[in-house]
Amino acid sequence: MKIAILDCFNGISGDMTVAAFLDAGLSLQALKKELKKLDLNGYKVTAKKVMRGSLSGTKFDVLINKKSHYHMSYNRIADIINRSRLDAGIKKLSFSIFDKLAAAEAKVHNIRKDKVCFHEIGDLDSIIDIVATAAAVRHLGIEKFYCLNLKLGKGSVRVAHGEIPLPAPATMEMLRGKPVSFSDAEHELVTPTGAAILSTLVEDFNSRPDIKTDKIGYGAGAFDAPAAPNLLRIIIGEAQSKGLAQDEICVVESNIDDMSPVHYEYLMERLFENGALDVYLTPVYMKKTRPAVVLTVLAHERSRAALINLIMRETTTSGVRFYRAERRKLDRAIKVVKTKYGPIRVKINTGPGIKTASPEYDDCRRAAKKTGAPLKDVIEAAKQKLC
């Protein structure tokens, strides 16, 4: 699997992200070709080598003829992306990043998402940065992102809404639940666009993966900071499995003693729809020997807030508890095998000296009902195809 590590030792912005990709080998010509598929004009993009402190990197710039013309709304940006000739995968990722921005801006300004007008982050250069980032991910074939050393600045900055504290409220909203540290730098280290890119691309902010390094790039920011080089480093390569895979998840729990059992099936469906990795119920006895259930939900940190809100709305509980947990796990892949009963998906788990296979129950059940064959025969047929 090709992975990338975003080393944000001095922050991240949209232009720094694109620049890091270019410094790591992305073709500027290929990027320009992708950007021409957008219905936008009045700009050009450039890239050049610069020094930041004692280190060199690439600086990416979007030069705009009529910048004031490009203050766009969320709906206008979505329309531009949807009507473009971009590949479907690039469209989807570009829109996902903008959607993160819109949701954060809507929350901090207490307005509906479709009423958001982006001002600074709706300028043409931010649109180009985001679409260029999505195109870079596709062109370089990166399947998973990690983030290290995410640092935030302090102070304040003047924007269209007036003077606001740093980190910007929308930036903080998008980084909610993510591990960060605060720098003494009196300027913006992580921009809203940078935060949107991180919160969309990165699933794991805690692990330090083993990697066989292929490419390394440094994306330069606009100014040359005296204390630390104003660079974003990206490390690209193949993930190495020296042992069991590892990551961090969030465990959310609640004790419930006064809810009808028939409600749990619907609750579990809704939890899975909102990002739960697993949900289970454990019967317990509480004080005064009252029978109760411990509801346990496993999820990525990014899904925690939505799941807690759902539990509060859909159950009779008055509170939940949550904590982070480390996992060690086998690598998982899905393979479709052709049997005389039809195609069956099989989950294949691998690790050091370990390989297991498990046919997907729903596929086997569906095939058994369709053909009239015994379920056990369908399962065995799928297993035989892997021998």
Characterization of this structure:
By secondary structure, the protein is of the alpha+beta class. The chain has three domains: about 1-240, no CATH class; about 245-330, 2-Layer Sandwich (Alpha-Beta Plaits); about 330-385, no CATH class. The protein is about 30% helix and about 35% strand. It has eleven helices and 18 strands. The chain has helices at about 15-25, 30-35, 75-85, 90-110, 125-140, 170-175, 190-200, 265-275, 305-315, 360-370, 375-385; strands at about 1-5, 45-50, 55-65, 145-150, 150, 155-160, 160-165, 180, 200-205, 210-220, 230-240, 245-255, 275-285, 290-300, 320-330, 330-340, 340-350, 355-360. The protein has a five-stranded mixed beta sheet.
- Average residue-wise pLDDT: 89
Question: Which band does the percent of strand residues land in?
Answer: 25-35%
SSE arrangement, N to C:
EHHEEHHHEEEEHEHEEEEHEEHEEEEHH
Main sheet overview: 5 strands, mixed
**What are the segments in which pLDDT stays under 50 over at least 5 consecutive residues?**
none
Strand order of the largest sheet: 9-4-1-11-10
In DSSP terms (H or I, runs of 4 or more residues), the helix count works out at 11
Q: What structural class is derived from the secondary structure elements?
A: alpha+beta
Distance between the termini: 24 Å
Computed over alpha carbons, the radius of gyration is 24 Å
Number of strands: 18
The 3D shape can be described as globular
| Number of separate structural domains | 3
DSSP helix fraction? 25-40%
